[in-house]
Amino acid sequence: MQDSGIQVLFQGTNFLRLLGGLWVSLKIAVLSMGLSMVLGILMGMIMTSTNKIIRFICRIYLETVRIMPQLVLLFLVYFGSAKHLGLNLSGNMAAVIVFTFWGTAEMGDLVRSALISIPVHQYESGFALGMTKIQVYLTIIIPQTVRRLIPSLINLLTRMIKTTSLVVLIGVVEVVKTGKQIIDASRYTNPKAALWVYGTIFILYFLICYPFSRVSAILEKRLKD
Predict the structure, then answer these.
(1) Among 7, 64, 106, 224, which has the highest number of CB atoms less than 10 A from its own CB?
(2) Any residues with CB less than 8 A from the CB of 167 and at least 6 apart, and which?
C-alpha cells in the first residue's frame, strides 16, 4: 500500500482539496447552465421568427459558437477583455460568460427544433378556443416543448460539466488544477501520484456525469414510448 502511491490522496487535505476543486467546476457549470436555459429559451423563440434577417443573424451566432473552440472563446474573453476593453474579469467570471454564450446558442437551437416539431394543429386548436398567442404558448406549446427538451438539456449539462476542465488554462483553480498542484508537490516523494490523482479526478467526473447520462437515456426512452 505504501509503495502504490495511493497515500497521496490522504496526505493532509489533498482529497478535500480535490472535492473543493470539483465544487468550483460544478458551480461554473450549473450557473452557466441556468443562465443558458433562460436565455436559450428566448433565443429559441427568436430563431423561429419569420423574419429572414433575424434568422440569418441567429444562424451566424449559432455557427460561430459551433465552429470556434471553447478554449479560443475563453482566451478571447479573459485576455481580450483585459487588453482591449480594460476589464479585469476573474477567471470564474470569464468562464461563466463563455459557457453561457455557448450554452445559449446550443439551448436556443434545441428550443427552436422542439418548437417547430409541435404540429401546427396544436396552435390552431388553441386559437380556435379563443386563446391569445401568449396563452397558446404558455398552456399548450411550452409544456410540450419542455417535455421534449429535458433529455437534450441533461446531455448539454453533462457536456458543460466536462468542458469546464478547460478553465484551468485561464487560471481557475478547479479540480484539474488542484490535482496538478498536488502532483507537483509530491513529485519527488511520490512518483506515482499522477496516476492516483488523475484516476481520482476521472472517477469524480464519472460519478457526477453518469447519473445525468442515465437519467437522460431513461427519459428519452420513456418519451419515445
Answers:
(1) 106
(2) 25, 28, 74, 91, 92, 95, 174
Q: Classify 90 as helix, strand or coil.
A: coil
How do the pLDDT tens digits run along the chain, 225 residues long?
A: 556 678 888 888 899 999 999 999 999 999 999 999 899 988 988 988 888 899 899 989 988 888 888 899 999 999 888 777 877 889 899 999 999 999 999 999 988 888 888 888 888 888 888 888 888 888 888 788 877 788 888 888 888 888 888 998 888 888 999 999 999 988 888 888 889 999 999 999 999 988 888 887 787 777 665
Q: Which residues contact 142 (CB under 8 A, 6 or more apart)?
A: none
Q: Which residues contact 153 (CB under 8 A, 6 or more apart)?
A: 37, 107, 110
Crossing angle (nearest 10°) for helices 142-163 and 193-224: 170
Residue for grid cell 476543486: 21
Q: CA–CA separation, 125 vs 127, rounded Å?
A: 6
Other CB atoms within a 10 A radius of the CB of residue 23 amount to 12
Contact 65, 106 (CB under 8 A): yes
